[in-house]
Amino acid sequence: MSRFFIIVGREITLALRQGGGASLAVAFFVLASVLFPLGVGPEPNILARIAGGVVFVTALLAAMLSLERLFQADFEDGSLELFALSPLPLELIVLAKCLANWLLAGAPLLVAAPVIAVLLHMDAAGLAALAGAMLLATPILSLIGAIGAALTVGARRGGVLLSLLVLPLYVPVLIFAVGAVDAVLQDLSPRPQLLALGGLLAAALPLAPWAAAGALRQALE
After folding, report:
1. What is the distance between the alpha carbons of residues 84 and 218, in angstroms, rounded to a whole number?
2. pTM for the complete prediction?
3. How confident is residue 21, by pLDDT bands cut at 50, 70 and 90?
4. 43: helix, coil or strand?
5. With contact defined as beta carbons under 8 Å apart, do 180 and 55 qualify?
6. What is the pLDDT of residues 61-118, one digit of tens each?
7. Number of domains in the chain
8. Are 131 and 197 spatial neighbours (Cβ–Cβ below 8 Å)?
9. CA distance linking residue 61 with residue 157, whole number of Å
């Protein structure tokens, strides 16, 4: 486990030195969310009705900004080959990278989402469901995104290909996350949607690192 957290710390340190990853995702999230009132008008009732969808769609797109370089830099400088030869299983290395990605990109989105929701006039009752759904959804985005990032390692125009691979897999997460917020706003229980998100997270935790590690081994051959 010490090696696992060493890799997490390495990824965070490198990202902070290079700059732009987490701050770019949060800046995109805020700016994209702010543009919606300009497009649909400042009517509070309309904004409150679409606030949940706006927050999760923009968060989903913002999370994708940090995925392209998840493994690409290590592939280019040879670090990925050393990871594959290390005593730590490649699946755990992938999981460590996903955790670092979530801490750098997902956690800031989790903090910023309620603020954006308030600015979009979301009812106070929906904020708790929004926070719970974001807490479950953002790790899933990092885990699923790792599969797409691994499949596109070394590919030309990998960013476009990554989007085409990952976006369809994000759709269930988006549906259940928005559904949880809408359920609360309609005086219903968000429990079914949150349980579905929890199930997706429980499935993604073991399966996504395994699939991403397999794709990385294929890329190294």
Report:
1. 11
2. 0.89
3. low
4. coil
5. no
6. 888 888 877 888 788 787 888 888 888 888 999 999 999 989 988 888 888 898 898 8
7. 1
8. no
9. 18
